[in-house]
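To illustrate the input format used throughout this study, we show a single complete record. The first block contains the structure-token representation of the backbone; no residue identities are included at this stage. The design step must infer an amino acid for every position from geometry alone.
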């Protein structure tokens, strides 16, 4: 079968390209074609990471790596045994694309340009003989009697022995109807990584300020995330907020994106420790005005904003602070409350929760358990990771496995 194997890869993004390259590398005589509905391939790779492309994350323990995925953790832990972060680094190294690891463990091409990754993929595709067809949406996909697939591309009818679906995240439920017609169970899609809009909060006046280590909680839930927090002209963003949005994707959708967050501006600092720290400030700097001495490692503009928000006179001396103001300071540093009303998603880099339900997929092969010959890779699955290179790693892993499995005559479930 491999001699005349026809593989159709639906989607020319990260997962689709990697799946196609894997299929052709493992089965050199196969005819592998990428069908991309738009005029450009790898568009999301191009804009990712501000045009730098965060290809993976320096986490080399598969179990720990899988914990960065709000959906798909258990399945990916097994999949990473086949292809993981180290595999990604090695794959690019053998194709003369050196990568660098930043202090936050995010891994980028040494060139600091996503175009390097795109050039690598396109060069590899030409070398292997992968066909790429742009502006070629596939419709009316049906499985015919011999197990092959029939598809329409415009007026043309295309036949393939195996299909790898790698269309990326589909934001609207209607965009997944064609897969449901094929027999796939679909989990309703909704945004995963998004920022918080705070139209009625004056903290927006501090846009551009970053607090390097904050803890953000969603009030009345167990949702919590820690990391850098960025104040924007619409509300809050940064890794802490994005992580919170990913883990809370379904809960926050149920709230229609109207909820309150509690911010601990000092990270993991607890009340008892903070009381002791404030006592030391009073003892050592009692004669100084509160507004002139910010004893915490966040910007002075935020300190002045918080004092004003809580009606604490910045000209008070630390020794005059008193019990009431001490309690106020402790509260706004550890439990500062803000109302969220709406979200902002990154249109070019949107990430979705939802898609093809994972229980239907054999992660040893990425094949549908009930529809033989139909494989999946990337975000079309109900898999999503937090920010930091994890979504691309899931794309490389599932794409590689799908590609290396399409030539198997029978796949064990």
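Output of the design step:
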């Amino acid at each position: 079968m491999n001699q005349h194997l026809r593989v159709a890869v639906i989607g020319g993004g990260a997962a689709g390209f990697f799946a196609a390259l894997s299929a052709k590398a493992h089965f050199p005589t196969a005819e592998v074609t990428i069908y991309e509905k738009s005029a450009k391939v790898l568009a999301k790779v191009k804009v990712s990471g501000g045009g730098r492309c965060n290809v993976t994350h320096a986490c080399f323990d598969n179990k720990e790596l899988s914990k960065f995925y709000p959906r798909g953790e258990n399945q990916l832990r097994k999949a990473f045994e086949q292809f993981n972060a180290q595999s990604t680094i090695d794959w690019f190294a053998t194709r003369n694309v050196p990568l660098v690891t930043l202090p936050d463990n995010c891994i980028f091409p040494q060139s600091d340009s996503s175009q390097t990754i795109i050039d690598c993929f396109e060069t590899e595709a030409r070398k292997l003989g992968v066909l790429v067809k742009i502006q070629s949406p596939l419709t009316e996909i049906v499985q015919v009697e011999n197990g092959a697939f029939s598809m329409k591309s415009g007026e043309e009818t295309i036949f393939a022995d195996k299909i790898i679906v790698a269309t990326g995240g589909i934001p609207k439920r209607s965009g997944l109807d064609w897969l449901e017609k094929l027999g796939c169970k679909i989990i309703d899609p909704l945004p995963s990584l998004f920022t918080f809009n705070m139209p009625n909060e004056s903290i927006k006046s501090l846009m551009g300020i970053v607090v390097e280590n904050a803890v953000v909680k969603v009030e009345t839930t167990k949702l919590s995330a820690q990391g850098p927090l960025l104040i924007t002209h619409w509300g809050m963003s940064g890794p802490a907020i994005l992580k919170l949005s990913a883990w809370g994707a379904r809960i926050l959708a149920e709230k229609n994106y109207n909820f309150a967050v509690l911010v601990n501006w000092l990270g993991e600092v607890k009340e008892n420790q903070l009381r002791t720290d404030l006592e030391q400030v009073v003892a050592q700097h009692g004669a100084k005005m509160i507004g002139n001495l910010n004893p915490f490692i966040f910007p002075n503009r935020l300190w002045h904003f918080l004092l004003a928000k809580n009606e604490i006179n910045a000209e008070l001396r630390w020794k005059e602070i008193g019990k009431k103001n001490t309690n106020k300071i402790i509260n706004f540093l550890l439990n500062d409350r803000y109302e969220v009303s709406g979200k902002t998603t990154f249109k070019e880099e949107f990430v979705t929760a939802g898609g093809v339900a994972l229980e239907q997929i054999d992660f040893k092969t990425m094949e549908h358990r009930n529809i033989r010959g139909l494989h999946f890779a990337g975000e079309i699955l109900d898999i999503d990771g937090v920010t930091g290179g994890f979504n691309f790693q899931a794309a490389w892993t599932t794409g590689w496995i799908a590609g290396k499995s399409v030539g198997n005559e029978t796949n064990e479930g």
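Structural context for interpreting the output: Residues 390-405 form the longest helix (16 residues). The chain has a mean pLDDT of 95.
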